[in-house]
Amino acid sequence: MSPQTTDTVSIIHWPAKTLVNPVMGKPSRPISGQTQYQTMNVFEGLNGKVNSGTWQATAGKFASHVVGYIEFCYIVEGACRLVDPNGTVHHFTVGDHFIIPDGWTGHWEVDECVKKVYVIAKA
């Protein structure tokens, strides 16, 4: 029997309140309000096909079109609504989690502030 070698795979950890290259911006398709957001991408893997981090936005309403990826979201602060083109409203608050599928079109509504943890998997 020959000895086997194993590669060590480590857990990736970033402490709470750690800012890792935060990106500030405004939605490219605003509908109303003066929404500003901050994205902190803290992990990228599988040659850029998977990434994860935190995203937060101030009050406003903005359009969204998801193309070429799916996104898992977990709300950690605040609340928001995602509205489908047919008018169906999805309400999310702290502790809720959801998946935005590839091809989804609609808009976000944020009354005060919302913060989510996300994982994006690209096609």
Automatic annotation (TrEMBL):
Alphabetized InterPro entries for the sequence: RmlC-like_jellyroll, RmlC_Cupin_sf, UGlyAH_Cupin_dom
Residues in (S)-ureidoglycine aminohydrolase cupin domain copies: 47-118
Protein name in UniProt: DUF861 domain-containing protein
Native source species: Lampropedia puyangensis
